[in-house]
Amino acid sequence: SSDDFLLDPARCIREAEMRPGAMTRLPEKYTIAFTSYSGGTGKTTLALDTALHFARQTEKHLRAKLPVMLVEFTYGASALAAILGLDMPHLYDLATQMDLEPTSFRGVTVIPMDYDNCRLLSVDLLKRYLKRQMANHVLTIVDALWPHGLISAVDEDVDRWLIVATPRLDAIE
User: Fold this and answer.
1) Assign residue 5 a region: left if phi > 0, alpha if psi is -120 to 50, beta otherwise?
2) How far apart are CA 81 and CA 112, in angstroms?
3) Under a CB-based contact definition with an 8 Å cutoff, are residues 82 and 43 in contact?
4) CA-CA distance, 53 to 39, in Å (whole number)?
5) Rounded distance, CA 58 to CA 53, Å?
6) Quick check: 138 and 30 in contact, CB under 8 A?
């Protein structure tokens, strides 16, 4: 389980290596995407909580901060920026101004989207920027509405898609 791994990663890796046909090593980088066809399903909260939990648990159990990043793909205003209430650079500024650094919140690199500006950029520019950022993080979490016109900047790098829904017709349709 995840808890067992965080308590003793070395033991879990040794046991996994001994199993026939088992994975012999953990991936160096991993990307998870929380997505939904509707707003208000809780995907931003889940994405942020997952990133914060990873940052806390790795520091607590591994005694090292493993870099984790949360990037948002939304339409309109950033739910991530609204939840955090921080004055921070958004994706457009980060992708177009090389001297800007993303905000770190409790050990999580946070990249909120400002769609009105980002929609003016090429997907290739966003992809190049996000690939550079993802290369510096062990875990990347994507918070995305689906479908999203700019998601192709990261979709081929997502290892696991998690669809979040509520029992509302517009959320599960």
Assistant:
1) alpha
2) 6
3) no
4) 23
5) 8
6) yes
Sort 33 into a burial class: Cβ within 10 Å, 0-12 / 13-18 / 19+.
buried
Residue in the structure block whose two tokens are 């509405």: 145
Distance CA 121, CA 96 (A): 9
Which residues are 36's β-sheet partners?
145
The distance from CA 47 to its chain's CA centroid, rounded to whole angstroms, is: 7
- Please give the chain's pLDDT, 173 residues, in tens: 667 777 777 787 777 777 766 554 555 799 999 999 888 889 999 999 999 999 998 888 777 788 999 999 999 999 999 999 999 999 999 999 999 999 999 999 999 999 999 999 999 999 999 999 999 999 999 999 999 999 999 999 999 999 988 777 765 55
The CA dihedral of 52, 58, 59, 64, to the nearest 10 degrees, is -130
Would you call 135 helix, strand, or coil by DSSP? helix
